Amino acid sequence: MGAGLIIGKQIIIMFIILALGVICNLKGLITKDGTKTLSVIELNIVNPVLIFMSYQTDYEPALLKGLMWAFLLSAISFAAAIPLSMLFVPKKSRYSVIQRFSIIYSNCGFMGIPLINNIYGSKGVLYLTAYITLFNLLVWTHGYIMMKGQKDFSTLIKAVLSPSVIATVLGFVFYITNIRLPEIPHNAMEYISNMNTPLAMLIAGATVAQTNILKAFKGIEMYRVCAGKLIIVPAVTFALVWLTPAPDVVKMVVTIAAGCPVATTGTMFAITMDRHPQKCSEFFAVTTVLSGLTLPLLTMVCDKLI
């Protein structure tokens, strides 16, 4: 019940900001071109700063073993999600690329951090950073190339050298070496990182305003993405990590992260690459609403099994 209330509050917060994005689009304050510009800012400035700042916390050697387990289990989760998305979504299916992307990559930051923090505290959040780290490394390499539709070497290099991947590597190095920013630059970076959620929601809302959500349910794509993202991937993830001798908290953190709704990064990729952004927004909006039911159930069932 506690988990349900926490998730419910996050969904309400998310949709209040998203609704403001819808209004801004309808009033002409955020145009289609404006949405694309804001997405570039979000992906190349705000998101990398958030990633880096997530590692600006005290290093504790005692937690390093659990963190290493978190990296391993997160890798297992993604290793399962990628082929599952390919099996679940036929190559010739309409919007096959964005369906597969939506099933693999979750909104593990906004939805995962407050939920896990309230259930497992700061230790759980630290373990979640392992999943978020792999998410960012993969979404900016595998996910970026998949959405771009190009597999040449130059595209891979561009993805590896993306701001978010660089921020992930630098952040981890700073964490391990216990390097902390001075107060003034630290506070400045915190202000920028705090823009992540509201800016992402405004962008998603402005994009949703350009779509017809009701029509989204007329195709099998929506049902396929909802089932894959909210049920199949987290269920398979839990079955795999349950077999390992990792700490129970790490198992739960990775399972919850895998069961979060579709990532907003997909919508922003779709906007900047002109890859069906409206359909990506529909996947994001519907899975976010349904996660209010699936995430509490997932948390309670897996907790009892462990």
Question: How would you characterize the overall build of this protein?
Answer:
- By secondary structure, the chain is mostly helical.
- The protein has one domain: Na+/H+ antiporter like fold (Up-down Bundle).
- The chain is 79% helix and 0% strand.
- The longest helix is centred in the middle third of the chain and has 37 residues, at 112-148.
- It is globular.
Shape: globular
Question: What level of helicity do the residues show?
Answer: over 70%
Q: Main sheet?
A: none
C-alpha-based Rg, rounded: 18 Å
Mean pLDDT: 86
Order of helices and strands: HHHHHHHHHHHHHH
Going by helix content, strand content and strand pairing, the class is mainly alpha
CATH class label = Mainly Alpha
Low-pLDDT segments, ≥5 res: none
Indicate the proportion of strand residues: under 5%
Count of DSSP H/I helices: 14
What's the short version?
With 306 residues, the protein is mostly helical.
Task: Looking at this protein, list some descriptive labels.
306 residues, single chain, 14 helices, mainly alpha, Na+/H+ antiporter like fold, globular
What's the layout of helices and strands?
Blueprint: H1 2-26, H2 32-53, H3 61-88, H4 96-104, H5 112-148, H6 153-160, H7 163-176, H8 183-193, H9 196-208, H10 213-216, H11 220-241, H12 248-258, H13 264-273, H14 277-305
Helix pairs in contact: 1-5, 1-9, 1-14, 2-7, 2-8, 2-9, 2-13, 3-4, 3-5, 3-11, 3-12, 4-11, 5-6, 5-12, 5-13, 9-13, 9-14, 11-12, 11-14, 13-14
